[in-house]
Amino acid sequence: MKxxxxxxxxxxxxxxxxxxxxxILAISxxxxxxxxxxxxxxxxxxxxxxxDSQVILQEYLRPYAHILGSDLNAGxxxxxxxxxxxxxDVTATVSWAKAPASALAYDxxxxxxxxxxxxxxxxxxxxxxxxxxxxxTMSYTESVDVGGGNLQEVEYSNFTVPDGTGVDFFPLPMIQxxxxxxxxxxxxxxxxxxxxxxxxxxxxxxGVGAKHSLSQWIPVxxxxxxxxxxxxxxxxxxxxxxxxxxxxxxxxxxDNYPDYDWDDQFVTQVIxxxxxxxxxxxxxxxxxxxxxxxxxxxMVQVLLEGHYPIHxxxxxxxxxxxxxxxxxxxxxxxxxxxxxxxxxxxNVGARLKLGVLTLHYDFTQTYYATxxxxxxxxxx
Length: 380
Description:
Helix content: 10-25%
Largest sheet: 10 strands, antiparallel, barrel
Number of strands: 18
Order of helices and strands: HEHEEEEEEEEEHEEEEEEEE
Low-confidence stretches: 1-39
Number of helices: 3
Number of domains: 1
Mean pLDDT: 86
């Protein structure tokens, strides 16, 4: 009976801590983890057609995909020792990766685009993590037979490639709950409730992981009370959306939808991360050092959601508007999925345990270098 009462008290405390930490993380996430949402992102490159738009969009968003992929594979553990049966732990963690200078721009001369790129001023365009005052321009034309085999080039789109936010890092906070199971195993669940910031976008994540003691099966190591070795794995999925604005350009001559509301446009990134690790930790009184080596991978799905004007030239010779520029409305025009990265993973860190309170910091190298700090409460 005493054990049951103690467990109920612990669970009640954990629920209160989880609710408070979740609220704090939601507030910090709105302020920290949405740097790209501080402005509308203009994506006039969509007027050039879906094929080129996919190429440009993937290059433009690449560093944030790598940053998020690195963030969500970090912070899984701060010791190799699993919880005892019935043990509970809740930890609030913030992980942040920073894009290197090489990720702040991409070389448009290396892209296989259908449009005509003016690279006379510069051949480099900023990614979403970079920023440039001078940027390449693109134009698109279509040949129209105006009679007698006389072809005329009609320009139906021109634009300057979009600028970035100038924010080259992305802190990702999360709550992680861990419960001890039998046979030297514990399981973890991590989450951030879906959080929106005004009309700019939203972000949310969830993940599951597990850790199993290998030390218990190796007699020599089992006798070394300060040393623990475990196998660990985890999966995390994060979804973020950014509000964008794509309206018909002024060069459109035939507008069949003059009063259309373009306010439903969002770029959504869904990023998944998997990691498996062999981890070790050494505990000396209140201080624990831990190390991990393993493998991490990440996949990205990019969706262009909403309704968008796609420019074209009227080529129906029977139309009174033949040879004029116009546009059609396309719904959800882009849905692409691709590998983000597959890399070895190396991790070192330290944890301080003061009663039930834990503090930790670690450094992880996957695709980008990632730092994590956390505070938690741990029982057993």
